[in-house]
TrEMBL record:
Pfam families on file: PHP
This protein's encoding gene: hisJ
Residues of the PHP domain: 6-219
Protein's UniProt name: Histidinol-phosphatase
Organism annotation: Paenibacillus chitinolyticus
Enzyme Commission no: 3.1.3.15
InterPro entries: Histidinol_P_phosphatase_HisJ, PHP_dom, Pol/histidinol_Pase-like
Residues spanning the membrane: none
Keywords, ordered alphabetically: Amino-acid biosynthesis, Histidine biosynthesis, Hydrolase
GO biological processes: L-histidine biosynthetic process
Keyword Lipid biosynthesis belongs to the record: no
Gene Ontology molecular function: histidinol-phosphatase activity
Amino acid sequence: MTFKWDGHTHTKFCYHGNPAEEPAYLDRAIELGFERYTISEHPPLPDKWVDNPRLMAELAMPMEELPDYLAYAEEMKARYAGRIEVTVGLEMDYLYGREDFSDALLDRYGSRLEDVVVSVHYLPGAGGMRCIDFTADDFREGLLAHYGSMDAVAEEYYNHVEKAIDWAAGLPMRKRLGHVQLIEKFREALPPISPELIERRLTALLPKLQETGVGIDVNVAGLRVPTCGQTYVPRWFLAACVSRGIPLIYGSDTHKPEHVGADWAWFETAFGTSRAES
């Protein structure tokens, strides 16, 4: 039987999420039979990381809120002890060229973290760093026009994913790669990426994941996105991870209580008789 763990969730500290208090999420997780629940909020970003003040204000909590977030997550862990295992974490962005910012943040707060999801949300593009999952129009203007083709954007994306794995390898807590196929969030609204390119680049990740012990966030959020309609990790890739012993952790990527446990059945049946990492 698969260990029931939601390893990628968000909170009221997410400025593009929902103001619901954490018990609404945790009570729902308990109702659905989850045994472990990782709280993994977006940490602060460097000042003016993206050149869009409105978007910048929505991407992550300000630095002064990070201690409050950690205290809140730790409070939930203590409050729900014996009912569900709550683990304290963050969804760390891989910040190309500003790894020092993330290193400093983890030097200060890393001892309080049990789980880290490492994600690629940003690529260099028109005018500086661009958010790959903001809107299809923004992707088209800031990335597709800048690189010239979807395949060229995808190649750069996977370059950053490889760098993210290398960076995550040095972290002492449990770590996993977030939504490895986020680049396809707008696949129904943008030109297609070559399937051969995707297969080639994902296959190349497997030995790196195996060697570093970095797991995979089996992120189902794409199923709820009208322009995506699929999970952010393909079934064939899951099977390849299983064959190499790479940990697979379900991630609802919940941004509101009703997302908790979403599409768990897909995860449980997606890779045959293998089981999630516990």
